[in-house]
Design a protein that fits this description.
This protein has 395 residues and is of the alpha/beta class. 31% of the residues lie in helices and 20% in strands.
């Protein structure tokens, strides 16, 4: 048998449970029921088939369908959600009159089914609550980010050795993916929302960097197949090509985000200038990023610099331009907050976000930088550390 809650996670999970319970009290809700993988991991330290039931007043209950062999306080095996009311009655657990369900992520059938199981007078959206709470990282989560960042850097140091003349972008990516796995990449790359499929990250080279994608990432790319139109597409890595490597930092459950640019031969002067502007944007944004800084203002700083430098038409794409320059990261690559001109959010201590000022140079490729930052009490700390200039691959 395996302990349901790992001993080293008990303090961290208690912090998270208490945060959720505080919000339930503020909302006047009796309980929440979670079943989506990322929320189960966040609140239990494991992914399982089943449900976490957390009342505003009382201890959590863990209803498990699979896998077998887990044990612990208030761990109960069930075959289907309809089993839960009988267990509530046996254990003296009050049935909730108001309940939060993961409305943005459950299927319609599952949502209706759970409403019938509990028959609350009121239901509300647990997805919005969990995304809001997951913005602020616990000390344990921050240490997981640091570990991911170290392994992420170790992989990026080996990228030049993955290159061989005559490669395509796909062949280059295959070699990088191997090194990612060697350094402990989980492989699975989680993102929130529909139409957000991605496999271990993205590489954009040459003209492919201009190709629009239906996915809401910073840049697109045609991809290997129309079923997943994103990233590398078989572009030859020839002289004068910029190669943007944005491969996932999923070396723990907490994902770091880091982009670096490599070149085959010398690039046009405009590419190097645009890259330097991206570094200037990073510096200017992080100079003012601290608790209380408005995310919309951080975006405007970036956009204003791009416009001032005459690169507005290249900023965050050409044929399709992303309307953000950064985003929260965590168990998913696209968490809150988002650095966009319409954002109403401000930075808060212990948020972790990625800042990614990028430019696309037609016929050359994408340039720019992306790093992960921890919001401290007085500013930000860069978590991902690796050479930020354009790195030549054929020297």
């Amino acid at each position: 048998m395996t302990a349901f809650i790992a001993e080293e996670l008990k303090d961290d999970l208690r912090i998270k449970w208490n945060r959720i319970k505080d919000e339930l009290v503020k909302k006047g809700m009796d309980a929440c029921l979670l079943t989506v993988d990322v929320n189960l991991y966040y609140t239990t330290g494991r992914v399982f088939s089943g449900y976490l039931y957390l009342p505003a007043d009382g201890e959590p209950w863990f209803f498990v369908k699979r896998p077998n062999g887990l044990e612990g306080d208030r761990v109960v095996y069930i075959r289907k959600p309809e089993d839960m009311p009988d267990i509530f009655a046996e254990q003296g657990i009050p049935m909730p009159q108001s309940l939060l369900l993961e409305a943005d992520e459950l299927t319609y059938n599952e949502y209706i089914r759970l409403q019938k199981v509990f028959q609350p007078r009121e239901t509300d959206n647990a997805t919005a609550l969990m995304r809001m709470l997951r913005r602020i990282k616990t000390p344990w989560e921050i240490e997981r980010f640091r570990l991911s960042a170290q392994r992420h850097e170790a992989t990026y140091r080996e990228i030049p050795a993955c290159f061989r003349p005559g490669m395509t972008d796909l062949e280059f990516q295959f070699e990088i993916e191997k090194q990612m796995r060697v350094h402990g990449s989980i492989g699975l790359f989680r993102a929130f929302g529909a139409n957000m499929d991605i496999f271990m990250g993205s590489i954009l080279a040459g003209e492919n960097a201009e190709t629009p994608s239906p996915f809401d990432f910073a840049l697109g790319g045609g991809g290997m197949d129309s079923s997943c139109p994103l990233g590398a597409n078989g572009t030859p890595l020839k002289a004068g090509t910029a190669i943007m490597v944005d491969m996932a930092g999923n070396y723990t459950a907490y994902i770091t985000d880091m982009t670096r640019v490599f070149s085959v031969g010398k690039l046009p002067d405009k590419a190097y200038r645009a890259h330097q502007v991206a570094l200037t944007i990073q510096q200017e944004v992080t100079n003012v990023a601290r608790p209380g800084a408005a995310c919309a203002d951080l975006y405007r700083i970036a956009a204003d610099i791009a416009k001032r430098e005459g690169l507005e038409a290249n900023f965050m794409g050409t044929r399709q331009q992303a309307k953000f320059v950064g985003h929260g990261i965590g168990l998913q690559i696209n968490e809150l907050p988002v650095l966009t001109p319409r954002s109403k959010e401000e930075l808060l201590p212990n948020m972790v976000f990625a800042l990614e000022p990028k430019f696309v140079i037609p016929g050359v490729g994408a340039v720019g930088v992306e790093n992960s930052f921890l919001v401290t009490e007085t500013g930000v700390e860069k978590l991902t550390r690796f050479e930020e200039s354009i790195i030549p691959l054929d020297e």
